[in-house]
């Protein structure tokens, strides 16, 4: 990692709440890997404290999920030689900056956060009337600003949190002096990959293809997938832009223009198209799965990578906290 030639600093993170699926791969991890390979100075974090904010009643699975998500990160090509891959709670400075921010963030900013309001009404089975859950985006701002990140690769759902991060940076700078940059979002261009039933891919809908699925599991899931619902007969022209199978083919198959024409002209049937997509998807995921197998069998290596990454992150975070303490006038 060469800091001088770096194009800027990047931070992003994911909550360890379950196995990652191909929606995460195409929607985020491919992007993260590309940024790492393009020479940005990348920090990729497993946000275990953020997981705790919703899982605090049943935290037993967090540790296994941290390990699994680390394996997913590494399998998708995140490289500890190029990126800092670390666990949030290993870098206690995040919580220290979170505390400082909590002094200056007006509560109404948090109460009117659309993500907060939505989750409160959606996750009814959990009691989220907590201080920590209201403060979720403050901790997220600390995650980002402690590395003085220039860019944050995220999905559109996280935009309100990034906007709040910028507001917190501005407020801090106004009160104590210009220090934090205002980080910008990097949205993924990849179209969202639907679940196997055509709805949004999600663990709770049971329509996800996981990075850890075996070839047999992938084939079985693909074979049950819906194809073009408007195409009743083989001789009818297809509607590729409304078809989940075509959405997948765009990501995993070669010669997509040709495939589209064949569909539009009824030169290929849905069953054959779907079978080919399944083969292409398995082929596409093969290198990911090979790395997955390696890391699952070398558990110590994975923990070592996370440990080393956390140390590196901490080195950076400590410097920021020193500066912050000085700016706030509490340097003793
Ligand atoms: N809130 C993010 C999510 O649910 C996870 C996250 C925590 C994060 N801290 C972050 C993302 C910092 C980007 C930057 O996906």
Automatic annotation (TrEMBL):
Sorted keywords for this record are:
Aminoacyl-tRNA synthetase, ATP-binding, Ligase, Nucleotide-binding, Protein biosynthesis
Concerning PROSITE patterns, the annotation shows: AA_TRNA_LIGASE_I
Q: What InterPro entries does the database record attribute to this sequence?
A: aa-tRNA-synth_I_CS, aa-tRNA-synth_Ic, Rossmann-like_a/b/a_fold, Trp-tRNA-ligase, Trp-tRNA_synthetase
Q: What class of enzyme is it?
A: ligase
Origin organism is candidate division TA06 bacterium ADurb.Bin131
Known EC number: 6.1.1.2
The reply to whether DNA repair figures as a keyword in the UniProt entry is no
Q: Which reaction is catalysed here?
A: tRNA(Trp) + L-tryptophan + ATP = L-tryptophyl-tRNA(Trp) + AMP + diphosphate + H(+)
Q: Which domain of life is it from?
A: Bacteria
The cross-references to NCBIfam families, in alphabetical order and at most eight, read: trpS (TIGR00233)
Q: Which CDD domains match?
A: TrpRS_core (cd00806)
What does the record give under GO molecular function? ATP binding; tryptophan-tRNA ligase activity
Assigned GO CC terms: cytosol
- What's the protein name? Tryptophan--tRNA ligase
Report the sequence similarity comment from the record. Answer: Belongs to the class-I aminoacyl-tRNA synthetase family.
Q: Which GO terms describe its biological process?
A: tryptophanyl-tRNA aminoacylation
């Amino acid at each position: 990692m060469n800091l001088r030639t770096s194009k800027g600093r990047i931070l992003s993170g994911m909550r360890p709440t379950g196995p990652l699926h191909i929606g995460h791969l195409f929607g985020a991890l491919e992007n993260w890997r590309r940024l790492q390979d393009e020479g940005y100075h990348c920090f990729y974090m497993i946000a275990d404290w953020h997981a705790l904010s919703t899982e605090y009643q049943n935290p037993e699975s967090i540790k296994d999920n941290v390990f699994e998500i680390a394996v997913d990160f590494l399998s998708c090509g995140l490289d500890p030689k190029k990126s800092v891959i670390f666990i949030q709670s290993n870098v206690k400075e995040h919580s220290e900056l979170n505390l400082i921010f909590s002094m200056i963030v007006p509560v109404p900013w948090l109460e009117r956060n659309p993500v907060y309001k939505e989750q409160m009404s959606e996750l009814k089975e959990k009691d989220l009337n907590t201080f920590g859950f209201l403060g979720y985006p403050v901790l997220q701002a600390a995650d980002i600003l402690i590395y003085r990140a220039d860019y944050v690769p995220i999905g559109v759902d996280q935009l309100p949190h990034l906007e709040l991060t910028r507001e917190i940076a501005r407020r801090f700078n106004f009160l104590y002096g210009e220090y934090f940059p205002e980080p910008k979002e990097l949205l993924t261009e990849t179209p969202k990959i639907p679940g196997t039933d055509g709805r949004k891919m999600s663990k709770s809908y049971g329509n996800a293809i996981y990075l850890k699925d075996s070839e047999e599991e992938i084939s079985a899931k693909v074979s049950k997938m819906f194809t073009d619902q408007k195409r009743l007969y083989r001789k009818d022209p297809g509607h590729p832009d409304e078809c989940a199978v075509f959405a997948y083919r765009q990501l995993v198959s070669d010669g997509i223009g040709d495939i589209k024409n064949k569909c539009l002209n009824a030169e290929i049937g849905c069953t054959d198209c779907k079978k080919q997509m399944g083969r292409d998807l398995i082929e596409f995921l093969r290198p990911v799965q090979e790395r997955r197998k390696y890391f699952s069998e070398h558990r110590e290596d994975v923990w070592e990578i996370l440990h080393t990454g956390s140390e590196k992150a901490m080195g950076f975070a400590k410097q920021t906290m020193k500066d912050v303490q000085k700016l706030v006038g509490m340097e003793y």
